[in-house]
Amino acid sequence: MTDIKELCAAAKRASRLLMTAGTEQKNAALDAMAQALENNCGLILEANAADVRAAREKGTRENLIDRLSLDEKRVKAMADGLRQVALLPDPVGGFDSVTTRPNGLLIGKKRVPLGVIGIIYEARPNVTADAAALCLKSGNACVLRGGSEAINSNKAIAAVMRVAIGEAGLPEDAVCLVSDTSRENAAAMMKMNEYIDVLIPRGGAGLIRTVVESASVPVIETGTGNCHVYIDDFADLKMGAEIIYNAKCSRPSVCNAAESLLVSEKVADSFLPMAKALLDQKNVELRGDEKTRAILGDSVIPATEEDYYTEFLDYILSVKVVSGIDEAIDFINEHSTGHSECIVTENYNNALRFQNEIDSAAVYVNASTRFTDGGEFGFGAEIGISTQKLHARGPVGLMGLTSCKYVILGQGQIR
Amino acid sequence: MTDIKELCAAAKRASRLLMTAGTEQKNAALDAMAQALENNCGLILEANAADVRAAREKGTRENLIDRLSLDEKRVKAMADGLRQVALLPDPVGGFDSVTTRPNGLLIGKKRVPLGVIGIIYEARPNVTADAAALCLKSGNACVLRGGSEAINSNKAIAAVMRVAIGEAGLPEDAVCLVSDTSRENAAAMMKMNEYIDVLIPRGGAGLIRTVVESASVPVIETGTGNCHVYIDDFADLKMGAEIIYNAKCSRPSVCNAAESLLVSEKVADSFLPMAKALLDQKNVELRGDEKTRAILGDSVIPATEEDYYTEFLDYILSVKVVSGIDEAIDFINEHSTGHSECIVTENYNNALRFQNEIDSAAVYVNASTRFTDGGEFGFGAEIGISTQKLHARGPVGLMGLTSCKYVILGQGQIR
Predict the structure, then answer these.
(1) Angstrom distance (rounded) from CA B198 to CA A404
(2) What span, in angstroms and rounded, lies between the C-alpha atoms of B233 and B267?
(3) CA distance A117 to A140
(4) CA end-to-end span of chain A, whole Å?
(5) For residue A361, is it left (φ>0), alpha (ψ between -120 and 50) or beta?
(6) Interface of B with A in 16-55 (CB under 8 A)
(7) Is A237 on the interface with B (CB under 8 A)?
(8) What is the C-alpha separation between A85 and A95, in angstroms, rounded?
(9) Closest residue to B394, CB basis, from A213, A245, A406
């Protein structure tokens, strides 16, 4: 417990120095970190092999082993990721606005780092490098708490990066790794309001829920996406079928994949068989209501109410026939996680209504939900997709890792 | 418990309608609410009299009774407050940015309401009207949980406003008052993530700490201000004395009042007696370190370390002689609550360093900390002064009560 407090305090001290670090210095550190990862690839792979061995011994599933495993190519990809972050524009130091008040006070709203960002994440060791890079570029220190299954890999990656940061003239404690991955330590970290300015959980729904419920440090909630595609009365049906196929099947394991298809009853008879023909190519399991089953037959599994709340992250899709746009909007606002939703329509008013009335981070007309991504939105790398409304919503890039402060220039004004 | 859940669910339903309400309709509702408060002044004063009577019977201190008490003039002031909010620009509906991506997707970042705002506050019944007005103008429903000592006043004010909102064609549940002011109810409200999008505590440090520690709903932390004025080696000493006098004495009970004076040892001999001469006019109690006492004498009480962490909200000032700007910056970043700090200097580099290195919401050069206020900053009314870095920092006006969503227009793009 003392250790985690000391670690967070060290990050806070480092954050004071990072706050005023220049862009060139931060970029030089990122390039040095990238080079160091490549130079120490052998050491990192050795540590990773220990993690993989331990995971195998515990009987971990192969898809999780794959997420945990590093090889030379993956280490190179991590290093390239750091170099790409170095190329992104620096989000801090500029002013969002500067105004002069009637009394002569000049009030500027300046972009500044948040301070210390705590990241709690699961298996994939590349998060250690990605998160550190985004935090450092935005002038923040970070406290990284990865999962126990990747602890050797994470330690090696962090140690290599810290040396490089120090050699680049920035404080090594810009990147602090929590080496004791006990639950008590994570719980203590969530209450470190004195030292940590914001917590970002990255991982499954369980992890995120725990952090939201337990933390007194402000949280940016990321990740869960029960995304909907609604095929309107006035849809281009061929476009609709291609969009739902893409949104469901191009990468089912990610949060911007579609989980639920709503179809207006006016077009359900023609649309559903078209969509099924495409989805069958990937053997997508459909779970539908009675009307869907009446059209598509018994190969469609009866959907439970719970199915409509579920983020499957798999080749499974819930389907429902609705009476039209009113029911679609109500149903989505009730069941969605506020991530990404799409209407397929050629009707102007329905497109506008969907945009205005759907309460989600990203609302699409005639495009796949799969575009909700920092890179696709033009923000460069992202630290996650926020599904909360406070501070940052949607893809969180470097700008989302900053705050503002007011700087006020006077000449003796009193009130 | 069921009641509070139902209340919050009703607010959520109302928020869906408010989300798309037009500016004219919201302004009409605000004007109607103002008129209704004036028309029902008698009823409100009667309810308030019951609260005041109960408070007197409990032996409540007179300054708290004064905060609780309403009269015709105060009700008129509440109504005028609502009319002023109607005159402010509507923060929602515009786009912060619109970009076209290489694939043709048009991505707009649109200002939208947060949804449901929960406000937990203490004695003053005017908060019920102020908070409701700011939330409604920004398109949000609110759940208001005032203190038990003002419950009759709050009920009367809320009931009058709700009728007016309904008559203006907006849902009455735009303003929901928690009538059962039990602790259990407040605790349940802090966990209503399903229905409440953000919680704003308004009141003393104890209330704010409780909400920050207990809530799983995202919180905007407001209010505590341990504000510093630092008199630099290169200060205009006369200006410095006027600024500390104004910052301490113009209204000591508010969060932007100065609580701590730091003086460079280079100017302490000349400055401290000048400042004391002014502060003596209001009999300000000084609590100083040894160096301060050596200069000003034994009328200065020895300061404890705790004094330097204390927001006195009274005619009390902690004083410390420091070696110069380095110690001043370190001392402030260690002791301040991140609210407002001021340097008095004529030196360019020290002014810049103070601005860059002080980690507070408002950083002043040569002006009183008392200007940290929504009105003084040109935002119109404010719901509080945020001392956290996430979402809103400094005075939180209507813009701080909004979020963004991305609306994406495509023509069949898939990924």
Answers:
(1) 19
(2) 6
(3) 7
(4) 46
(5) alpha
(6) 16, 19-20
(7) no
(8) 22
(9) A406
CB < 8 Å to B406, chain A: 361-363, 372, 377, 393-394
What average pLDDT does the segment A386-404 reach? 95
Q: Tokens 């300015």, residue?
A: A197
Asked if the model's pLDDT at residue B186 lies above 70, the reply is: yes
DSSP annotation of A219 reads B
A398 Cα distance to chain centroid: 12
Let me know: does A212 contact B216? Beta carbons within 8 Å: yes
Residue pointed to by tokens 């302490």 = B268
A9: nearest CA partner in chain B: B334
Among the listed residues B150, B148, B149, B169, the one whose alpha carbon sits nearest the alpha carbon of residue B33:
B169
pLDDT at A1 over 70: no
The count of other CB atoms within 10 Å of the CB of residue A283 is 8
Give the three-state DSSP class for B338.
coil
Q: Which two tokens stand for residue A204?
A: 């499954």
Q: Do B393 and A377 touch (CB under 8 A)?
A: no
Q: Angle of helix B348-357 relative to helix B325-335, nearest 10 degrees?
A: 20
- pLDDT tens digit sequence for B335-389: 999 999 999 999 999 999 999 999 999 999 999 999 999 999 999 889 999 999 9
Residues 6+ apart with CB under 8 A from B282: B248, B249, B315
CA distance B130 to B82: 7
- State yes or no: ipTM above 0.90: yes
Yes or no: say if B320 and B292 are a contact pair by the CB < 8 Å rule: yes
Side chain identity at B126, as an amino acid letter?
N
Specify the 3-state DSSP secondary structure of B354: helix
Three-state SS at A118 = strand
What is each CA distance from B12 to A280, A355, B18, B90, in whole angstroms?
A: 39, 19, 10, 21
CA A287: distance to chain centroid?
27
For testing the chain B interface, which of A349, A389, A403, A411 should be mutated: the one with the most B CBs within 10 Å? Answer: A389
Q: In DSSP terms, which residues pair with A413 in a beta bridge?
A: B367
> Cα(A272)–Cα(A241) distance, rounded to whole angstroms?
8
Note whether B291 and B262 are within 8 A (CB): no
Computed on alpha carbons and rounded to an integer, the radius of gyration of chain B in Å comes to 24
Q: What is the pLDDT of residue B2?
A: 59
Judge residue B351's burial from the number of C-beta atoms within 10 Å of its C-beta, 0-12 exposed, 13-18 middle, 19 or more buried: buried
